[in-house]
């Protein structure tokens, strides 16, 4: 992992906010590495899964868990959300082994991908973990939860960007048996806890009938240790708000009515989730990582190919998908904004900037 | 990070357990640690024979808490595909083999209240690793182990020592037979049964459990995730005229990539649809979950990441 991740020491910005005054923004480098999810000018659900194999080098896809300039901001936001609502982190009691599996996977991956920021020293079961970005240095006994300040899953996921869920596999089915979910696109861990793969995907239109979930589940059931996979998902969000949870709908639902032709470039954001799936070795559970990236229309339009393509994708997206994703109301305003950048020129295949 | 390929290992020890069974201890070639695994996992062992490679799945029987080595036990099957004969006859201490990362399709249901493990002969192996976990977690379990003769197995002493009253033995040469019907009859609700061994035993256990009204979710028989392999065949690429040979364990996609082609693909597991390729001539043995049954019957399309040719040659629109 270490040789390929060329972002060995990402520059990390001081804390910015995802609420209130919304000071979050992307640097030009962060824009260039944004995981733009559209490989073509149109979009429909599919089983878009590929190996999470360290490619392409230097991209946001390459590290096991991507750490970027927003690290400190996202970790501060997570602390705030958890203070208000501790139920955002829950793990069923039987999953202790999966908690340790997660901690080990994350510590070894971060230390290998970002040696300047993280290190792990193991002397038998005595482990020393150092996170220089958050100024954490703890020595603990692997598999002895009493030697950590928090349960292992919460301890480590408070130090890694992205939401995470844990899934037990029983009867050829996956169950949502735990998670750390503070930056989600309108779904709730507390509500979904204990549900199976089809149940928690219940609200998604079309995909059930298309057989997408049946095929995806079949594939995941045979996921192997050491061969993680990934996929991209996306939606639109008003303001760079990480926590668009049902629990806080009263705080963000009204944002959608604030979009005007004057502010749309600044307020409307493309929200992309880089999701990776990991078979955990000792527990045989699956860890699902949902790494969220936000980019404003203004920022996105600095890459001509992306503005052209997003215009076409949003314009042609079926009503039921736009409705489910929650932006059908302000779609026309976004389209008017993006249309200015769509000269009708052909776009190159793949998601990378030209 | 690269997708986990086969792990090179060295045979550190071979123990002859009986005239038919040998236990192999495998250590990583680089002297490091092997991937951790869960009880009931198996690995696919690749052996390089003189004329052909063998690839056989075997259950890991060593402790899931031990990462310095794996252990497998192999029964010599004279009528099998040759992998077990090769391990018995040709493999020596110090030889190099390769194992896949562990996979588990026979895991203990962690929410089960009670676990009944029924093993026949060499079918004991997946249970050996599961038993470490069940004991460590303080679970309620019982092992029922049927075998032909006591000298056919070296596991008896160990099982008695570690599991005492929880282990029950049935030696058929002494007239003792395991009776799944009776074992299953008076189990409390919420019990899970696991079976591994000869087909006859698996059938009996599964049928009995069903007849007693056990839910399918509480009946477990060992499965291996064997990658699709089969007869070699030739792929003809219609556009370039290239002819490529696909070996028993290769995929068309891999061979195309090895030869400098870059066909569309994504999941490499027969579900995403990206690698769908038109077939101009030839018959296909489909292994994907993407194409409809109708298209499959027509042999007009092929998912080149998992499917193979049923005919000796197949002409693709590439
Ligand atoms: C264990 C792994 C997974 C978890 C935990 C998960 C979780 C979720 C959740 C919570 C939602 C939101 C549902 C709602 O509206 O309440 C969702 C949506 C969705 N999921 Fe998954 N998912 C997983 C794997 C997959 C996979 C492998 C696919 C592959 C096709 C997939 C496809 C989708 C799609 C298409 C949507 C709709 C998204 C949108 O339009 O915004 N999911 N998933
Ligand atoms: S690559 Fe996904 S079906 Fe072949």
TrEMBL record, chain B:
UniProt keywords, alphabetically: 2Fe-2S, Flavoprotein, Iron, Iron-sulfur, Metal-binding, Oxidoreductase
UniProt-listed SUPFAM superfamilies: 2Fe-2S ferredoxin-like (SSF54292), Ferredoxin reductase-like, C-terminal NADP-linked domain (SSF52343), Riboflavin synthase domain-like (SSF63380)
Domain FAD-binding FR-type, chain residue ranges per copy: 4-109
2Fe-2S ferredoxin-type domain mapped to chain residues: 231-318
Domain of life: Bacteria
MF term (GO), any: oxidoreductase activity
Annotated protein name in UniProt: Ferredoxin
Keyword Cell membrane recorded: no
Entry-linked Pfam families: DmmA-like_N, Fer2
């Amino acid at each position: 992992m270490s040789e390929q991740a060329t972002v060995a020491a990402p520059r990390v910005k001081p804390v910015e906010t995802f609420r209130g005054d919304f000071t979050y923004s992307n640097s030009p480098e962060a824009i260039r590495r944004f995981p733009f999810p559209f490989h073509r000018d149109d979009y429909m659900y599919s089983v878009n899964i590929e190996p999470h194999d360290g490619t392409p080098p230097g991209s946001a896809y390459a590290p096991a868990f991507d750490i970027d300039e927003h690290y400190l901001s996202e970790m501060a936001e997570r602390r705030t959300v958890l203070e208000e609502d501790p139920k955002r982190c829950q793990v069923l009691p039987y999953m202790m082994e999966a908690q340790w599996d997660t901690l080990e996977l994350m510590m070894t991956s971060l230390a290998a991908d970002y040696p300047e920021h993280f290190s792990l020293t193991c002397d038998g079961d005595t482990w020393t973990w150092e996170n220089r970005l958050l100024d954490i240095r703890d020595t603990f006994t692997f598999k002895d939860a009493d030697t950590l300040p928090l349960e292992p899953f919460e301890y480590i996921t408070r130090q890694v960007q992205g939401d995470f869920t844990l899934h037990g596999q029983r009867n050829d089915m996956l169950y949502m048996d735990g998670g750390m979910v503070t930056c989600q696109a309108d779904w709730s861990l507390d509500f979904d806890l204990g549900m199976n793969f089809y149940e928690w995907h219940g609200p998604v239109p079309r995909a059930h009938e298309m057989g997408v979930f049946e095929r995806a589940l079949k594939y995941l059931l045979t996921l192997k240790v050491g061969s993680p996979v990934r996929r991209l998902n996306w939606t639109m969000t008003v303001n760079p708000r990480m926590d668009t949870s049902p629990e806080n709908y009263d705080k963000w639902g009204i944002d959608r009515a604030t979009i005007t032709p004057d502010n749309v470039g600044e307020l409307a954001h493309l929200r992309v989730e880089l999701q990776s799936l990991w078979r955990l070795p000792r527990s045989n559970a699956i860890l699902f990582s949902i790494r969220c990236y936000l980019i404003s229309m203004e920022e996105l339009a600095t890459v001509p190919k992306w503005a052209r393509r997003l215009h076409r994708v949003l314009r042609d997206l079926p009503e039921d998908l736009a409705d489910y994703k929650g932006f059908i109301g302000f779609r026309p305003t976004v389209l008017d904004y993006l249309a200015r950048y769509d000269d009708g020129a052909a776009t190159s295949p793949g998601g990378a900037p030209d | 990070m690269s997708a986990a390929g086969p792990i090179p290992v060295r045979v550190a020890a071979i123990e002859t357990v009986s005239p038919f069974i040998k236990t192999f201890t495998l250590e990583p070639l680089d002297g490091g640690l092997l991937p951790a695994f869960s009880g009931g996992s198996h690995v696919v062992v690749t052996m390089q024979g003189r004329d052909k490679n063998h690839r056989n799945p075997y259950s890991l029987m060593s402790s899931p808490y031990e990462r310095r080595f794996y252990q497998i036990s192999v029964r010599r099957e004279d009528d099998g595909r040759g992998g077990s004969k090769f391990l018995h006859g040709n493999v020596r201490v110090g030889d190099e083999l390769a194992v896949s990362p562990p996979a588990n399709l026979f895991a203990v249901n962690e929410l089960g209240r009670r676990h009944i493990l029924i093993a026949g002969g060499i079918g004991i192996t997946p249970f050996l690793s599961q038993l470490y976990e069940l004991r460590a977690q303080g679970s309620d379990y019982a092992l029922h182990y049927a075998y032909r003769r006591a000298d056919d197995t070296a596991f008896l002493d160990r099982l008695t020592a570690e599991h005492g009253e929880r282990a029950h033995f049935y030696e058929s040469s002494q007239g003792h037979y395991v009776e799944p019907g009776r074992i299953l009859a008076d189990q409390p609700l919420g019990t899970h049964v696991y079976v591994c061994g000869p087909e006859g035993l698996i059938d009996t256990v599964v049928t009995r459990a069903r007849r007693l009204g056990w839910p399918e979710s509480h009946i477990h028989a060992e499965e291996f995730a064997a990658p699709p392999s089969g007869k070699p065949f030739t792929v003809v690429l219609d556009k370039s005229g290239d002819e490529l040979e696909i070996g028993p364990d290769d995929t068309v996609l891999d061979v195309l990539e090895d030869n400098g082609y870059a066909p569309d693909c994504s999941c490499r597991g027969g579900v995403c649809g990206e690698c769908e390729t038109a077939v101009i001539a030839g018959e296909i043995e489909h292994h994907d979950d993407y194409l409809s049954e109708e298209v499959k019957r027509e042999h007009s399309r092929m998912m080149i990441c998992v499917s193979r040719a049923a005919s000796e040659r197949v002409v693709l629109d590439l």
